[in-house]
């Protein structure tokens, strides 16, 4: 054992040593359909205008710590009900970590819960924060919520934090609203429910207007899928008193000056980004129909900017697509109910057609 191996064994937590890093494959030269990014860039005129605004940003100063202007713009422009506030994060990934760090139980280890398969950072952030993660399997036939199982698990584990991604990643479907409300009610005063609306720009459905009805509800969104994955900005809407508690855990200056300027610029031009989302939704409809016509392929309904599907041999398909320089996500090893499933981001008509052709060749 080398000195550095000994140092790692003596200092780094065993559960951290045991896991692999969050893997992001090198995509240079690939058609990149693995990460739900918007393939469209801003029009040239807007890029020039943004460049000017970024040039004017005070990079010698720390960001204004309260982010008052950006928060006000988000609340007004993105449908946060009056009387509710937002907490900003370096992507919603950071908001998940902040919430997982802030929760606790007096009597025993805190539990974070989500229906599974779910976005991987729910479980990871729970683990890093020292909480237990309990996943409750979705119904395997249609990835809907198993409400009796969820209610049973809530009663048994009393989670302090429960995530419902609406629509869900990696399955793409919207859960039943009544079932979600029953879960929020069952959590009551003992647990916070995070409705994660990362894909809201495509689903156009939201729990934001239900904030006043449920004090234990918070709604989390991101600018990533809308076309600004590179700036890393997530926001969490909820009761200001609850957000104030999360605020204490937020690292100071977590949203940098360039992100702040770019986000405010994006809010000025939401119509452009919404137009791109609309194009992607049209392509989702086409892609789903073409996939459904392929023999041996099972396509799952999606309200997001990706489609999950089952193929005869996901490992073979992913390997062959990768050879053809098309990068998608193999879901097979994530959960047994996703055996032979793959996930593809909806992209431009040209890239979607390239994916379809590569898939056809591999089937
Ligand atoms: N929630 C869900 C459901 C997601 O799929 C993702 C990204 N894949 C995120 C949150 C994180 O988004 P970001 O950190 O880019 O805001």
From TrEMBL:
Biological pathway: Amino-acid biosynthesis; L-histidine biosynthesis; L-histidine from 5-phospho-alpha-D-ribose 1-diphosphate: step 7/9
Keyword Amino-acid biosynthesis: yes
Enzyme class: transferase
Cofactor: pyridoxal 5'-phosphate
Catalytic activity: L-histidinol phosphate + 2-oxoglutarate = 3-(imidazol-4-yl)-2-oxopropyl phosphate + L-glutamate
Modified sites of kind N6-(pyridoxal phosphate)lysine: 225
Gene3D superfamilies, per database record: Aspartate Aminotransferase, domain 1, Type I PLP-dependent aspartate aminotransferase-like (Major domain)
GO MF assignments: histidinol-phosphate transaminase activity
PANTHER family assigned: HISTIDINOL-PHOSPHATE AMINOTRANSFERASE, HISTIDINOL-PHOSPHATE AMINOTRANSFERASE-RELATED
Family of this protein: Belongs to the class-II pyridoxal-phosphate-dependent aminotransferase family. Histidinol-phosphate aminotransferase subfamily.
Oligomer and partners: Homodimer.
Name of the protein in question: Histidinol-phosphate aminotransferase
């Amino acid at each position: 054992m080398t000195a550095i191996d000994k140092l790692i064994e003596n200092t780094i937590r065993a559960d951290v040593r045991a896991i692999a890093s969050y893997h992001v494959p090198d995509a240079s030269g690939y058609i990149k359909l693995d990460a739900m990014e918007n393939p469209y860039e801003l029009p040239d005129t807007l890029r020039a205008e943004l460049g000017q605004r970024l040039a004017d940003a005070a990079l010698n100063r720390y960001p204004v710590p309260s982010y008052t202007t950006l928060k006000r713009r988000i609340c007004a422009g993105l449908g946060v009900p009056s009387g509710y506030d937002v907490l900003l994060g370096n992507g919603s990934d950071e908001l998940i970590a902040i919430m997982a760090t802030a929760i606790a139980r007096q009597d025993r280890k805190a539990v974070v819960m989500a229906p599974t398969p779910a976005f991987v950072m729910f479980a990871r952030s729970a683990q890093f924060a020292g909480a237990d993660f309990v996943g409750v399997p979705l119904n395997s036939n249609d990835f809907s919520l198993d409400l009796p199982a969820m209610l049973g698990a809530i009663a048994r584990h009393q989670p302090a934090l429960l995530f419902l991604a609406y629509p869900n990643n990696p399955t793409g479907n919207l859960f039943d609203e009544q079932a979600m409300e029953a879960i929020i009610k069952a959590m009551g005063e003992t647990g916070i429910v995070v409705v994660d609306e990362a894909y809201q720009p495509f689903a156009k459905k939201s729990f934001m207007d239900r904030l006043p009805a449920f004090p234990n509800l918070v709604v989390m969104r991101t600018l990533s899928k809308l076309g600004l994955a590179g700036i890393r900005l997530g926001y969490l809407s909820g009761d200001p008193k609850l957000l104030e508690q999360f605020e204490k855990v937020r690292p100071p200056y977590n949203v940098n000056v360039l992100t702040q300027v770019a986000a405010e610029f994006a809010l000025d031009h939401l119509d452009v980004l919404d137009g791109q989302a609309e194009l992607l939704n049209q392509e989702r409809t086409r892609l789903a129909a073409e996939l459904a016509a392929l023999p041996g392929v099972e396509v799952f309904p999606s309200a997001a900017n990706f489609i999950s599907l089952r193929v005869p041999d996901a490992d073979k398909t992913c390997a062959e697509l990768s050879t053809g320089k098309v990068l998608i996500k193999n879901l097979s090893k994530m959960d047994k109910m996703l055996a032979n499933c793959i996930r593809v981001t909806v992209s431009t008509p040209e890239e979607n057609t390239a994916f379809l052709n590569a898939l056809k060749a591999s089937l």
